[in-house]
Design goal:
Blueprint: E1 5-8, E2 17-23, H1 27-34, E3 35-36, E4 48-55, E5 58-67, E6 78-84, H2 87-99, E7 103-104, H3 109-116, H4 122-133, H5 137-148, H6 150-174, H7 181-214, E8 216-222, H8 228-236, E9 254-260, E10 263-269, H9 279-294, E11 297-303, H10 310-318, E12 324-329, E13 343-345, H11 354-365, H12 380-399, H13 405-423, H14 429-437
Parallel strand pairs: 1-7, 8-10, 8-11, 11-12, 12-13
Antiparallel strand pairs: 1-2, 2-6, 3-4, 4-5, 5-6, 9-10
Helix pairs in contact: 4-5, 6-7, 6-13, 7-12, 12-13
Length: about 450
Amino acid sequence: MEKTIACISTPLGTGAISIIRISGPECLNIAKKVFFCKNKDNIVPRYLYLGDFLYKNINDKCLMVHFKAPLSYTGEDMVEFQCHGGEFLAENILKSLLECGAVLAENGEFSKIAFMNGKLTLDKAEGIIDVINATSEAELKAGYKILKGELKQTVNKMQDKLTEYLARIDVDLDYPEHDDEHATTVYVKNGLTKLKQEIERLLKTATTGKMVKHGINIAIIGKPNVGKSSILNALIGEERAIVTNIAGTTRDTIVETINFNGMKFNFIDTAGIRESEDLVEKIGIERSKQSIKEADIVLVVFDNSETLSKEDEKLLELTKNEKRILILNKTDIGKNLKFDECFLEISALTKHNIEKVKEAIYEKVIDKKVDISGLIITNIRHINNLNLADEALEEAISKCNFESIDIIAFLVRQIWEALGKITGETEYESVIDEIFSKFCLGK
């Protein structure tokens, strides 16, 4: 017998309301055991009913709504209770529903049932996760576009073209007397070449997508006492790092995040890089050097009130192959430095040009060829499957020059299946289980 699942769908804790969700064939019968209102025996789907939740010692004035399959989130019959917020009340209402015949839902089980019933594709489910977990405007927009189905529509159009190519190949295989194999091969090769360009265009958004999802990592590097911690404090707008005139105050990396132009900026304040015999400071300096390698961009900070030192020259050499911006701090004291490459004169003390630093980071890191308001690939599983499709396309295009048309058909089907993994049409059950296990309880 098909089970009926139940779970709390809102975070536990004190709040205005809590929502408890039930899905399955017995959901309405279970609800009627505990919920009492006018017209109880004639509940109309999609109407909110005000009534009393009564079971043993649990009483609450709450709302109840019934969704009739298939017009529900899961595609099954569903009931939702909107009760007063409070951890004790919500947990006891859930306990009551379990005692009346429901089974406790697993992580993401509601969404998994929705997927199994064709209400969701895998990419849309992952879009839900991204929307829930979003911590920046750009991340929220990217997640919403996936949830809305823009990736699914793009993939489906690609698969439709592949189906068209397969149909044309099948005609040649079924009616060899037409002897039109060469023309078909040329037609398919041209189509696959265009498709490869489209997939590679999508893959180009992945670098920006990584930053949308995880933020731009910005390492603040410099010798001791050039004002790195003061710059961090000015950039984030609060006194986060300790600032003194004693060299080597920062012994470890400090990471702080802000939002700018809808993107997350992860600023990493590092230990001053210099020769040191202090064991703790040496560890901090090694971490600073590691931060340079891991950062998306490096702010190399110099003291503009001094001349260039040997330590400064070593920093220029150390970061010459990195994406960097040269920051000349302490312009309120003096202006002694000039560089051939792009640099910014600032004062962490007076906040002079601090906003320009943020603007420069954004301009230097975000690929102007990528429409940040458009479809951006942020999910590693989507990237991997697009890469699989791209590799299969390369092989198919190459073999169009010398292989028989039935071999080409086999390769085209491989491309179709690689794309199908994105939406879940051809994905393995173990991968599907893993994706839905990432959902919170009640979703």
